[in-house]
Amino acid sequence: xxQRTANRxxxxxxxxxxxxxxxxAILLGVLESGAREDARTAIGLRDxxxxxxxxxxxxxxxxxxxxxxxxxAWTADTSPHDxxxxxxxxxxxxxxxxxxxxxxxxxxxxxxxxxxxxxxxPGIAQAVSAKxxxxxxxxxxxxxxxxxxxxxxxxxxxxxxPNTDYENLGEAELVLGMTPAIAKILASGVTIYAFGQPQxxxxxxxxxxxxxxxxxxxxPVPPTxxxxxxxxxxxxxxxxxxxxxxxxxxxxxxxxASNQGKFWRVMDWD
Length: 270
Prior knowledge:
By secondary structure, this protein is α+β, with helices and mostly antiparallel strands. It has helices at residues 3-66, 108-117, 122-136, 149-154, 180-189, 206-217; strands at 81-85, 88-96, 101-102, 190-191, 228-240, 243-255, 262-269. The protein contains 6 helices and 7 strands. The strands form 2 sheets. A 5-stranded antiparallel beta sheet has the order 1-2-5-6-7. Strands 3-4 form a two-stranded parallel sheet. Helix 2 crosses helix 3 and helix 2 (108-117) packs antiparallel against helix 6 (206-217). The N and C termini lie far apart (81 Å).
């Protein structure tokens, strides 16, 4: 082997070594990048779990704070409260659903007041409210301007009123004549969980208050000594790092006559 051939072979060997080192460097870079991505994913999952746990915890904190006769009770009027739970910042609010019209108990006139208060034309509000009541009413005869199964069939719909109480407010979106604007007003102005008659503290003006009182007074009078029952809508938003979690719950709270025993039941959790 002459000197030229030996130098050529050493050059080839050096080139192969350099190529191998380059491939190793690329592989190490890929592995490092994957490790960093895995770490970011793990941190994101951890933060998301922490935020969700904080949001859930805030729901129970809010429920405790709004219990009547609690020494430091919050007012359940949708006012936000800021908390720190673990490493998460949380904003939570509670609403007493007694301030809302009950879609399962109250009259079409009461529901129409809510719709008119949200800016819906009075004629449309009256018609849609009648249909909303007909959806859950067991009466085979429809309300004036209402709708029963033949009306849904005539409109080409494959379903009709179940003639039972609403199980959730989402059902209202199936009612004949419903629009996104009306559904939005219902979501913020009525409930299916109220107990007894609305306390009328959330109405927006004197005319609406007068109309709602008139509508409610035309309904059957509730028992003189009804059970002490509260329904609360609770919402929480928690953030840890870039992770954000939400929780909404409706909780029923029963309090005995001595105000000593308190029993709760989750009605909705999403």
